[in-house]
Specification:
The protein has about 250 residues and is an all-alpha fold. It is built from 16 helices and no strands. It has 2 domains: about 15-125, Alpha-helical ferredoxin (Fumarate Reductase Iron-sulfur Protein, Chain B, domain 2); about 135-245, no CATH class. It is about 55% helix and about 0% strand. Helix 7 packs across helix 10, helix 12 (about 135-145) packs parallel to helix 16 and helix 14 (about 195-210) crosses helix 16 (about 220-245). The longest helix is centred in the last third of the chain and has 24 residues, at about 220-245. The protein binds iron/sulfur cluster (2 copies). One iron/sulfur cluster binds near residues 104 and 105.
């Protein structure tokens, strides 16, 4: 919407979309090309009746200014500006529950298409992707370096205020509680379970080969550096271990 046709609200608070410098057409085409050329795209978008069943069953549509029908229509009609605008905020409202995919009479997967758009937003280092992922840097560090998403020592009153009074239950002596679990690999508080050195090193290869580490470099270079150091140390440790075992 242009400023000449601004609503009363936009006259007071401005219009972040219209106020933004327009993106060159070639860049918009490049972004769409990245979405469309993904192998999953043709499996997830077969056409669209614009029936709205996906939006009617979408939990996120009930709470946010978000509609999977709108997202699918933007992609189906190749509305490049609309796709780019949706990638600034709306795509991050999806909960990835895939109720839409189960209900769409055309066999589309709006949630899957949103996932593709998110990956492309990350690839292009969009500000929206950086803002959404910033609060999760500690989780990303843990996940990429150990394969664990959360560890017991990350659960605290401060980190999870929305847990309400129940969070006091995790204030118990964690070391003692974990050692009481009969499974020895769970006797750790820095990871959810003990991760074998070989498994960690194999995991790093997967992150690299699937482009996860490169995506991280675009989104958060500092976190990338920290994780790279951890990976190098673990790989050295694994080589030393192999040498000690007389392996190649
Ligand atoms: S349910 Fe399927 S066909 Fe209907 S609007 Fe959503 S994506 Fe389009
Ligand atoms: S996957 Fe996303 S778009 Fe689909 S129903 Fe769930 S929240 Fe809505």
């Amino acid at each position: 919407m242009t400023q000449e046709h601004a609503t009363r609200v936009q006259e007071h608070i401005g219009d972040p979309v219209s106020a933004r410098a327009p993106l060159e057409r070639t860049k918009l085409e490049e972004i769409f090309q990245d979405i469309q050329s993904d192998l999953r795209f043709d499996h997830q978008l077969n056409g669209c009746l614009n029936c709205g069943i996906c939006t009617a069953t979408c939990p996120s549509a009930h709470y946010y200014d978000y509609s999977p029908r709108e997202i699918v229509q933007l992609l189906w009609t190749e509305n490049l500006e609309g796709i780019y605008d949706a990638m600034q905020e709306k795509i991050w409202a999806c909960a990835q529950c895939y109720t839409c995919a189960a209900r769409c009479p055309f066999g589309n997967s709006p949630g899957g298409l949103v996932m593709l758009m998110r990956e492309v937003a990350i690839k292009h280092g969009m500000e929206s992707a950086k803002n959404v992922l910033r609060p999760f840097s500690r989780v990303m560090l843990k996940l990429i370096s150990t394969g664990n998403q959360l560890s017991p020592d990350m659960i605290s009153r401060d980190a999870f205020p929305d847990w309400g009074p129940n969070v006091s239950k995790v204030d118990a002596p964690l070391d003692t509680l974990r050692k009481a679990i009969p499974v020895p690999t769970l006797h750790t508080t820095k990871t959810a379970w003990e991760v074998n050195l070989k498994t960690s090193v194999e995991l790093y290869t997967i992150w690299e080969e699937t482009g996860v580490t490169n995506s991280l470099k675009t989104i958060d270079p500092n976190l990338f550096d920290v994780i790279q150091d951890i990976m190098d140390d673990k790989r050295d440790e694994y080589s030393d271990w192999q040498e000690a075992q007389g392996e190649d």
